[in-house]
Write a structure and sequence with these properties.
Layout (H helix, E strand, L loop, with lengths): L4 H41 L6 E6 L2 E7 L4 E6 L5 E7 L2 E5 L7 H4 L9 E4 L4 E6 L6 H4 L3
Bound molecules: zinc ion.
Length: 142
Amino acid sequence: MQRRPVHSDRMLGMDNSQIKVKKSDIVLIVALLVGFLAMITVLTLTKSGGAYVVVSVDSVEVAAFSLDQDITYEIKGFDGGSNTLIIQDGKAHLEDSSCPDHLCEHMGKIDKVGQSIICLPNRVVVEIRGAGDDKGFDTISS
Ligand SMILES: [Zn+2]
């Protein structure tokens, strides 16, 4: 028999330590999702006309705009970060972001229900929500 229980124990130990590191990330993501879902529920209940651009920071909704209006909005992100939200011609995107990676700017413009721009360093989420989930996907195709 060439079993080596010691070796497999070491493997398990490594796995455990890796899982521990990731756990904190998962907790954060779950917390963000829960807050986000709560926000979506509130928005779904609040029926209105067209699609909305919803801005949330650290899982808290801070602003919502109609996708039909052209605006420039300064988002005060987490820990002093900032992003500028631009809505123009029915499309939304981020500019002048303070984050180091600028991934959010590279996500480009969004104009369809369910699309989102996320800036992780600033904990900013910009998402397009429809007035009603039932028709949302087909209605927004002007
Ligand atoms: Zn960013």
